[in-house]
């Protein structure tokens, strides 16, 4: 799915076909991200091995985020943007062939759970209409925007009802009784709404606001993404002695500080300290998210924990990026808009860190029984 959709993106001249193919590619990428960490956890023999492999998963993510924009910046100089999608198609095909040859661990016995297609449809509809409604508010709250907002609320209510009463659910409801899982999920959402949303808009600020080329902007942003990959490797050496919630809260606090440092920056050089700090903290945070996503659920639910955490992360990113565009659209200048974006996302990251600490403290006091958790992951 991922390879085929990107092949269409690289070959088509139709805007409609390109957008539809991107949607399909996104669905394929979602499947890879949600199951990838679950497979990593399933292939791990013990807790220490699981932490190490989760760290390398985070390093790979950071490296991809760093190299991808630089590659597109280079291709942009020769007007070869379509080559990027052809490269993704080739990479997806090679990954599929490699996966077919891998010897994966034996699958656990099926628990009898069915796919919650209704829940998936309701969640997708609620997200799509909600994000579209937020975008619509940029130009005023017209009848269409109000209708989309109402539809999003109704779909959300229907989703909650289906999850409470349906036989099949997207996530095992029992997981929501464990504060460790809630803390990890909140951290994922805060990561998306905070640093990911800000960095997703940062390239537009660098190009449109500061007049940089796409390649120069990508290289500057590598100070964030590249540092996150290196930091994830460094933190692996001390992760065994660092409680999981502390790693999440520390990473969120660091990204918040880095984002707030970007507020007064009015030049690429002035942005460098904030980008480096946010990058180092992102490495700590990403490694912690990968660790806690599988450590706060039973071993046989590793893929579910990974899927829930990544869903929370990209839900936060979708809402955060949409809000960022809205803030910039209503600002008198692009510079002021960027300052508002970094302020809001920085505060969101800080509040998420506080929420993780409160949930973790409540978890320690309540001493919730957590199945198959490694020492320090609570």
TrEMBL record:
<dbReference type="GO" id="GO:0022857">
    <property type="term" value="F:transmembrane transporter activity"/>
</dbReference>
<feature type="transmembrane region" description="Helical">
    <location>
        <begin position="337"/>
        <end position="359"/>
    </location>
</feature>
<keyword id="KW-0472">Membrane</keyword>
<feature type="transmembrane region" description="Helical">
    <location>
        <begin position="248"/>
        <end position="265"/>
    </location>
</feature>
<feature type="transmembrane region" description="Helical">
    <location>
        <begin position="81"/>
        <end position="103"/>
    </location>
</feature>
<dbReference type="InterPro" id="IPR020846">
    <property type="entry name" value="MFS_dom"/>
</dbReference>
<keyword id="KW-0812">Transmembrane</keyword>
<dbReference type="Pfam" id="PF07690">
    <property type="entry name" value="MFS_1"/>
</dbReference>
<feature type="transmembrane region" description="Helical">
    <location>
        <begin position="20"/>
        <end position="42"/>
    </location>
</feature>
<feature type="transmembrane region" description="Helical">
    <location>
        <begin position="311"/>
        <end position="331"/>
    </location>
</feature>
<feature type="domain" description="Major facilitator superfamily (MFS) profile">
    <location>
        <begin position="1"/>
        <end position="364"/>
    </location>
</feature>
<feature type="transmembrane region" description="Helical">
    <location>
        <begin position="115"/>
        <end position="135"/>
    </location>
</feature>
<feature type="transmembrane region" description="Helical">
    <location>
        <begin position="214"/>
        <end position="236"/>
    </location>
</feature>
<feature type="transmembrane region" description="Helical">
    <location>
        <begin position="54"/>
        <end position="75"/>
    </location>
</feature>
<feature type="transmembrane region" description="Helical">
    <location>
        <begin position="141"/>
        <end position="161"/>
    </location>
</feature>
<keyword id="KW-1133">Transmembrane helix</keyword>
<dbReference type="InterPro" id="IPR011701">
    <property type="entry name" value="MFS"/>
</dbReference>
<dbReference type="InterPro" id="IPR036259">
    <property type="entry name" value="MFS_trans_sf"/>
</dbReference>
<feature type="transmembrane region" description="Helical">
    <location>
        <begin position="271"/>
        <end position="290"/>
    </location>
</feature>
<dbReference type="GO" id="GO:0005886">
    <property type="term" value="C:plasma membrane"/>
</dbReference>
<protein>
    <submittedName>
        <fullName>MFS transporter</fullName>
    </submittedName>
</protein>
<feature type="transmembrane region" description="Helical">
    <location>
        <begin position="181"/>
        <end position="202"/>
    </location>
</feature>
């Amino acid at each position: 799915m991922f390879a085929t959709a990107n092949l269409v993106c690289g070959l088509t001249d139709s805007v409609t076909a390109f957008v539809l193919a991107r949607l399909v590619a996104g669905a394929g990428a979602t499947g890879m991200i949600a199951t990838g960490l679950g497979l990593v956890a399933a292939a791990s023999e013990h807790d220490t091995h699981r932490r190490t492999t989760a760290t390398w998963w985070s390093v790979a993510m950071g490296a991809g985020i760093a190299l991808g924009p630089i590659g597109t910046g280079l291709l942009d100089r020769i007007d070869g943007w379509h080559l990027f999608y052809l490269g993704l198609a080739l990479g997806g095909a090679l990954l599929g062939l490699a996966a077919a040859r891998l010897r994966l661990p034996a699958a656990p016995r099926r628990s009898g759970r069915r796919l919650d297609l209704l829940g998936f449809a309701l969640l997708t509809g609620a997200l799509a209409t909600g994000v579209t409604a937020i975008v619509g508010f940029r130009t005023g709250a017209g009848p269409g925007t109000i209708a989309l907002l109402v539809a999003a609320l109704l779909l959300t209510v229907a989703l909650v009802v289906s999850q409470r009463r349906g036989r099949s659910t997207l996530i095992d409801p029992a997981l929501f009784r464990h504060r460790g899982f809630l803390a990890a999920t909140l951290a994922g959402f805060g990561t998306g709404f905070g640093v990911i949303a800000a960095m997703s808009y940062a390239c537009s600020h660098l190009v449109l606001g500061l007049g940089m080329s796409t390649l120069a902007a990508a290289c500057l942003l590598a100070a964030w993404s590249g540092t996150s990959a290196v930091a994830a490797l460094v933190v692996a050496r001390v992760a065994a002695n660092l409680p999981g919630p502390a790693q999440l809260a520390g990473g969120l606090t660091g990204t918040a500080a880095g984002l707030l440092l970007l507020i007064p920056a009015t030049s690429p050089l002035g942005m460098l300290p904030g980008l480096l700090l946010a990058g180092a903290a992102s490495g700590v945070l990403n490694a912690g998210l990968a660790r806690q996503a599988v450590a706060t659920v039973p071993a046989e639910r590793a893929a579910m924990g990974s899927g829930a955490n990544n869903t929370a992360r990209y839900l936060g990113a979708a809402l955060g990026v949409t809000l960022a565009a809205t803030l910039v659209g209503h600002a008198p200048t692009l510079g002021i808009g960027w300052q508002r974006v970094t302020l809001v996302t920085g505060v969101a990251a800080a509040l998420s860190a506080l929420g993780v600490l409160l949930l973790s403290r409540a978890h320690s006091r309540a001493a919730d029984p957590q199945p198959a958790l490694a020492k320090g992951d609570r």
